[in-house]
């Protein structure tokens, strides 16, 4: 061969070898890992391990809200069409094992899955026929059921793991708990109540898993498998007593129905700690079926709806006058039915009467508007405004509920001649049921206002407990003022007071009725707010009924107070006071004797 041609062939061969070597090296070093990774990705199936949302508990540990992991089972109809159901069989004569085909496609897959799912095989098979790559054939399947389906090894059957919220107590504390919706990536998100305000704590961290599968859909035993467990959300323990909450909800529902009212609410609070034992709204929502309840009834009116407190506002006027030293409980007042101020503003009492001589305590017990404005005149508007704010009106309490209202307390500069007087008896300002109970709780707590709270503690997945910090108290009035006002408020529930229906056998009750007209529509708001045992208070309670058929808080709301407060005394293990029982028995005996004497006199006549 020509030497030059030989060299040319050698060069060409060397070049080809070099190119082949380079290509091989490129495949091994550069493209190889990429191709291997792509192949691995194509045969790897991944999934998300959903994190259970944290529980919400009652004060006694009762589960009020929880989470359950379930699966929606879907199918790839195209893969199902290619499914072949085979069974391993052993020849008894030869001992040889072989595969036997028992069926194909959707019919075969359905015949295996139907009994596990508890559905008709033909209907199930029909839902698996088509050209969709994902169709849900079963929803909310328990994990055990999914494991049985998964063990069948049917290619094209795919799970969608979901976390669903459950509310074992139904409507109990429904307006407090709130509810959730499913956001991106199947994560539950709080939409109302504690579910919303505690969403960050309640939300856990999802895990994930992956396996490599072969062409038949079977797991490759030697392939990589990874499993990262989910971290559950934090449990929120509340201050709510589920049993008392249920009693209060029933009681306010009965009152609202009997009165044909729009709505009502009950709040029970520990004055010294701020712990809210009951936050009940009428027509409570079932969080599991929130859409079945009208939008206006899903939230907590007890912390959102505002109204003029009416005569409950007189408590702030009397507290300010006592604290400023301009009155004493025994001062005497000349109280006509109507009274006109120096600037021409005329006021009248709720019931017509002649001119009365009343002590300060009697003015409060009989809830006299005329007597109250005479007392309030001894204070400047600036001073009274400051006390209204110190009692909590016009500012948020900070309770762990969304959309809380601060109420309305306009600046003194915006008070006209009449508002300067009407604010003395709870008109011209507005607040919530929670703010109303806070006023009486402050008096009960010796003049120290403690902010209400609903969350008692947070419990992490490992069981570690982080208690809620106890709110610092704000001094509103002195202990001596609070003590004097307490004695005056006891008179409200005694014979001759406006709230005899709030009295409880064996317990002293201090409180105040409230009745105020609704400015934006016809009707009134009837309320009673009080605390018991009056001289050693354990609870403060507010009962609000919006637009009842009857008018007065003493007849509409006080009986609800009595029912809820008595149940709370029993729940807390606070026994009746023997001295109170004896005193009440003596009063009853005197009343019976007087009645008998009157009957005898009529008989003689």
What can you tell me about this protein's structure?
This protein is of the alpha+beta class. Helix content is about 35%, strand content about 25%. It is built from 20 helices and 25 strands. Strands 2, 3, 6, 7, 12, 20 and 21 form a seven-stranded mixed β-sheet that branches. Strands 14-13-25-24-23 form a five-stranded antiparallel β-sheet, sandwiched between helices. It has a three-stranded antiparallel β-sheet with strand order 1-10-11. A hairpin with a 6-residue loop joins β13 and β14. α3 packs across α4, α11 crosses α14 and α11 crosses α17. The longest helix is centred in the N-terminal third of the chain and has 40 residues. The model has no long low-confidence stretch (mean pLDDT about 90).
Report low-confidence residues grouped into runs of 5 or more.
none
Largest sheet: 7 strands, mixed
Mean pLDDT: 89
Radius of gyration: 37 Å
- The global form is elongated
N/C terminus separation: 160 Å
Number of strands: 25
Q: How much β-strand is present in the residues?
A: 15-25%
User: What percent of residues adopt helix (DSSP H or I)?
Assistant: 25-40%
Structural class: alpha+beta
- How many helical stretches? 20
């Amino acid at each position: 061969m020509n030497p030059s041609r030989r060299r040319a062939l050698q060069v060409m061969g060397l070049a080809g070898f070099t190119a082949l070597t380079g290509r091989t090296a490129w495949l091994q070093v550069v493209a190889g890992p990429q191709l291997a990774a792509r192949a691995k990705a194509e045969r790897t199936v991944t999934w998300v391990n959903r994190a259970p949302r944290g529980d919400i508990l009652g004060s006694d540990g009762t589960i009020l809200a929880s989470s359950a992991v379930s699966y929606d089972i879907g199918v790839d109809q195209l893969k199902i069409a290619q499914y072949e159901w085979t069974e391993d069989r052993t020849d008894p004569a030869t001992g040889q094992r072989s595969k036997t085909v028992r069926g194909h496609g959707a019919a075969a897959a359905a015949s295996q899955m139907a009994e596990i799912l508890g559905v008709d095989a033909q209907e199930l098979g029909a839902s698996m026929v088509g050209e969709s790559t994902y169709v849900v054939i079963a929803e909310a399947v328990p994990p055990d059921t999914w494991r049985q389906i998964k063990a069948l090894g049917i290619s094209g059957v795919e799970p969608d793991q979901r976390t669903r919220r459950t509310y074992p107590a139904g409507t109990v504390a429904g307006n407090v708990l709130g509810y959730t919706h499913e956001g991106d990536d199947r994560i539950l998100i709080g939409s109302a109540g504690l579910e919303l305000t505690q969403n960050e704590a309640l939300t856990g961290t999802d895990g994930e898993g992956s396996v490599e599968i072969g062409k038949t859909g079977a797991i490759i035993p030697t392939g990589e498998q990874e499993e990262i467990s989910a971290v559950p959300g934090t449990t929120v323990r509340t201050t709510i007593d589920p049993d008392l909450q249920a009693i209060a909800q029933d009681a306010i529902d009965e009152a609202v129905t009997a009165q044909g009212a729009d709505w009502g609410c009950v709040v029970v609070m520990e004055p010294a700690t701020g712990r809210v034992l009951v936050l009940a709204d009428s027509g409570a929502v079932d969080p599991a079926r929130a859409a079945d309840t009208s939008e206006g009834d899903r939230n907590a009116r007890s912390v959102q709806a505002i109204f003029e407190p009416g005569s409950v506002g007189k408590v702030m006027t009397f507290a300010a006058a006592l604290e400023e030293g301009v009155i004493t409980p025994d001062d005497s007042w000349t109280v006509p039915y109507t009274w006109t101020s120096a600037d021409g503003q005329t006021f009248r009492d709720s019931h017509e009467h002649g001119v009365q001589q009343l002590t300060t305590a009697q003015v409060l017990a009989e809830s006299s508007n005329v007597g109250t404005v005479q007392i309030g005149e001894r204070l400047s508007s600036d001073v009274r405004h400051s006390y209204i704010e110190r009692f909590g009106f016009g500012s948020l309490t900070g309770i762990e509920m969304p959309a809380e209202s601060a109420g309305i307390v306009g600046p003194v500069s915006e008070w006209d001649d009449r508002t300067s007087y009407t604010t003395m008896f709870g008109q011209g300002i507005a607040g919530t049921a929670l703010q109303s109970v806070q006023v009486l709780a402050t008096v009960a707590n010796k003049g120290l206002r403690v902010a209400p709270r609903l969350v008692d503690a947070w419990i992490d997945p490992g069981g570690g407990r982080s208690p809620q910090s106890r709110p610092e108290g704000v001094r509103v009035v002195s202990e001596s003022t609070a003590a004097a006002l307490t004695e005056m408020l006891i008179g409200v529930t005694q014979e001759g007071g406006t709230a005899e229906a709030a009295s409880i056998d064996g317990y002293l009750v201090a409180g105040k009725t409230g009745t105020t007209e609704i400015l934006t529509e016809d009707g009134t708001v009837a309320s009673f707010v009080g605390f018991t045992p009056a001289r050693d208070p354990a609870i403060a309670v507010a009962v609000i009924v919006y637009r009842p058929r009857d008018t007065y808080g003493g007849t509409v709301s006080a009986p609800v107070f009595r029912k809820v407060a008595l149940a709370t005394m029993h729940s807390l293990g606070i026994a009746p006071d023997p001295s109170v029982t004896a005193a009440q028995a003596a009063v009853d005996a005197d009343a019976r004797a007087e009645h008998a004497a009157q009957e005898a006199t009529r008989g003689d006549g």
